[in-house]
Amino acid sequence: MAMATSSPAPVNITLHAASRVFEIEYDDGLSFKLPFEFMRVHSPSAEVRGHGPGQGTLQAGKRDVTITEVQPIGHYAVQPLFSDGHTSGIFSWEYLYELGVNQSRLWDEYLQQLQAAGASRERTETNVAAPSAPGCGHHG
Description:
Number of domains: 1
Number of strands: 6
Low-confidence stretches: 128-140
């Protein structure tokens, strides 16, 4: 019987507020510097991803978003609190690793989606949700 391989575990996490980068180092020797904006637009929350395939919402106007706090979730994840009020994304160690490994491709795809939608990374009145807006809008 084959043994399950364990996912890499983080050994160090650093928030770089001035450069707006979340740095995570794993026990396999790899480390990633994930910009706050990148993390925000790839949040694993239902608000961003939707409730099923093809139901995601393009996140525009997030260039200047910051992470105000990071809360640990057990021994498997963190929950960043973003300056735009987004707090529902739980980033598992495995998901952060996937973001790091695929960062270049995911970022390019995001920029292409923005361009196709005529949207921008810049904050405008049309792409700013009120920080107090509830979750993804599908729950009461």
